Amino acid sequence: MTKKDQIAIGHSVKRLDGVGKVTGESPYPGDIDLPGQLWMKIRFSDRAHACIRAIDTTEAAAMPGVVRVFTAADVPVNEYGLVWKDQPVLCGPGSDKPGADIVRCYMDMVGLVVAETEAQAAAAAARIHIDYEDLPAVFDMDAAMQDGAPQIHPQCEQNIMAHYRIRLGDMDAGWAQADVVVEGEFDTGYQEHAYLQPEAGLGYIDELDRVTVIVAGQWVHEDQDLIAHALALPPEQVRVVYPAIGGAFGGREDMSVQIVLALAAHVLRRPVKIVWSREESIQYHHKRHPVRIHAKWGATSDGQIVACEATVTGDAGPYNYTSTKVMGNASLMATGPYVIPNCHIDTLAVATNNICTGAFRGFGAPQAAFAAEGMINRLADALGMDPISLRLKNSIREGSIISVGTPLPKGVSMPQVIEACARESFWQQTGDGDSWSRKAISQPANPSLRRGVGFGCGFKNVGFSFGFPEQSWATVELYGDAEIQEVVVRHAGAEVGQGTHTVMRQMTAEAVGVPLEKVRLIGHDTAETHTSGSASASRMTFMAGNAIVGAAERALAQWHAEERPAKATFQYRPPRTTMYDPTTGKSEPNFAYGYVAQGVEVEVDIDTGFVNVLRVICADDVGHAINPQLVQGQVEGAVVQALGYAVMENLISRDGKIRNPYLSTYLIPTVLDVPIEVKSVILEYPDPIGPFGARGMAEMPFIPLAPAIAAAVHDATGVWLDELPMIPERVVRKLRAHGIGGI
Prior knowledge:
Strand content: 15-25%
Distance between the termini: 64 Å
Number of strands: 27
Structural class: alpha+beta
Number of domains: 3
């Protein structure tokens, strides 16, 4: 089928949820009320690390309007977690889970108060009296790994949750070949998800006596499973429904209010509602991992990268969440999108008593890219070589063997993406076409302002990695007599603002061969759908599309056989992946990837240290743009979010406590901070196994921006920045250390 033959995909149709969200008619979890509902407030830990000797709820329970106070003793199976079930639902005595009486960070929940009003619940929660016995705490990753450090979990020796090793080639031979060697130390900070609606939800008993939770999340069936496990209920007795969702970015992958709402509704048999404040949201849900990377790269004089060593250390906080997966991804990305024959990489996820860290757009790749792209830019500088030419000389290509000793899946487009971005931004081909040079840029008249350009690129997995079970189910129903009059598609994939429900309708219409207006979607409800997998890992279009195509093919076969209405359910399973070999790191980590490159122009005020990002040109291979306008929206949104990560968002944690839990002190980009140009260069090199050739792309435009900005700052000032965020005081400190600026 050619593009001009396509009836529903490849076009920028209006979003299914657009009007409702713009007008305010679409209900978010915090907008939904039920008659007779109660209100919940949570009492969080007052300590970073302590054993709870006793909890006295007498005063709280006697306060006006209080219906019930819940503690650890009320949770049937007091544990949860996406990867490891290592966190108590409620911390305190009375639980049959060993270690549940210990709080390990300030975001641990200790008690719940359910009352007639929110104010009554909040007042009573403050009157829960907790007897703590303080335990030694550790807040520094290096200190946590030392002999004699406080042990946060007995199963994590030296507080190391995971240690991944990659050993490829011969390092001695690699260093012997290297004419130029560069080293660097890179530090990245926390990042807050800052989605529009903080955590909120409503628990109740539905008409079929199911414990039902209306909430914002990223995978309704995973929420269902974790609730059922904690309440010791069969999954079919638990129902999870997502209404409109105010963004996610990985921040809604792990549990917040789901289990506690279900617990209260199950026990009280009345609706129970909760809405977190922004302060609660920032203090008590997980963040992006702070990561420290020491890297050493070597290259020959003609620009062939021959050796890479790196130590990658990430702060997991006290519970796993997805840290073992995030750091596994960071390990894979530590060499960047380059073929390096000799690699020695150690990656560690370290437990501390800081706030928990977990999934966030890019899932370890932005931190790794900051170092990898920083190193190749330093190599280019040391070699006197253009950064585009150096990248193209070493870029991964079709059939390339990467650091884990296996070839990439087919469909590698990294060189084409680099070239397209360079050409559309600040570079030009010279000579025979194999060399590139930077175009001239003008400098401001103000001597305090200096402009420069920089480049970054990267790649990232599409779908779950390292052997994690990957699947997606869809059901397609066809109704009508002589011709198909209505198509119903059932898919549970979460619509977290990315437009996935619109794309699902488009792909269904295309697969069935009907106009878009004939397709109706049922989703976001465990009672109506099979599992979809999470809205994460840039996987939803890829996985949902393949599941929908499979279900549509089977439903059409029934239709043509005169079985009407026709209904078919299909489970899509992609090619298998494998975990790292524990000694060598050898694996087949992913079944598909996305590829991205960015050129950036910045203006640096050498007196104040302010970095103003003027232009971002982003080239992204999406395989096939199912809805081009939504692709452009993802690029622009990722760029602005990555801009905040790179130059603004400075979350301050001291002794395990967030010190700036407000959007007045934790600054995120506003419309006035958006670059004057964000140019989307949409490339379409079909993925061999993607639906209609599509590959995921939502995370990719985030990944290379920070290192591209750092390269542009170096171009403007001659100073390398190696710590995120690049806030003015850090920039000034670096500039002054090099004798630059000052009034």
